[in-house]
Amino acid sequence: MSKEIDRNRSLEELEGSRWPDPLEDSTGLVKAVHRLRRRPIGSLEVEELSRLITQDVGLPWLMPLALGILRETAPNQAAGGFYDDDLLWSVLTRKSSLWEAMPESARELREILAVLTDLSSYLQPEADAFLASAPK
Questions:
Q1: Under 8 Å between Cβ of 55 and 33
Q2: Backbone phi and psi for residue 105, each to the nearest 5 degrees, phi listed first
Q3: What span, in angstroms and rounded, lies between the C-alpha atoms of 53 and 130?
Q4: Which of 50, 44, 128 minimizes the C-alpha distance to 85?
Q5: Cβ-based neighbours of 100, under 8 Å, separated by 6 or more
Q6: Half-sphere exposure of residue 58, counting CA atoms within 13 Å on the CB side?
Q7: CB-count burial class (<10 Å; 0-12, 13-18, 19+) for 46
Q8: What sign for the dihedral angle of Cα 119, 124, 128, 131?
Q9: What does the angle CA 44 – CA 50 – CA 56 come to, to the nearest 5 degrees?
Q10: How far from the centroid of its chain's Cα atoms is residue 94's Cα?
């Protein structure tokens, strides 16, 4: 990560943009995303990061956090320990335009994937697609 991100700030603060409150009849997902955008990013749980990333929300700030988690936990997967497939799936399945805009993050994800030895059958095709299309 090239610059330090203030984890005490929310996505709203980092982006300088406050979304209007969701409509009363909005889905639970929409309400959750709005709520999560108002929390300090350092307080987000892995599942919450995954939810926001999957919705393409706050990627310039959340992707470095997610990659940090994946980097820390990748050796555990190789040792037979816990590895968060959902977060990895969320990161891997972002559009190629994101990786073109964030080539350092793409390189970091390539390094993380090199450590992983036994991806699940639903993740391996996503990893292969990322490796084939992302900048080196």
A1: yes
A2: -65, -35
A3: 16
A4: 50
A5: 106, 135
A6: 33
A7: middle
A8: negative
A9: 105
A10: 9
Under 8 Å between Cβ of 43 and 54: no
- Residue count of the chain, please give it: 136
**SS3 assignment, position 121:** coil
The closest of 97, 95, 125 to 113, measured between CA atoms, is 125
In DSSP terms, 10 is beta-bridged to 40
Whole-model pTM: value is 0.89
Nearest by Cα to 45 from 2, 35, 95: 35
Tens of pLDDT, residues 40-94: 999 999 999 999 999 999 999 999 999 999 999 888 776 665 566 899 999 999 9
Q: CA-to-CA distance for 120 and 113, rounded, in angstroms? A: 13
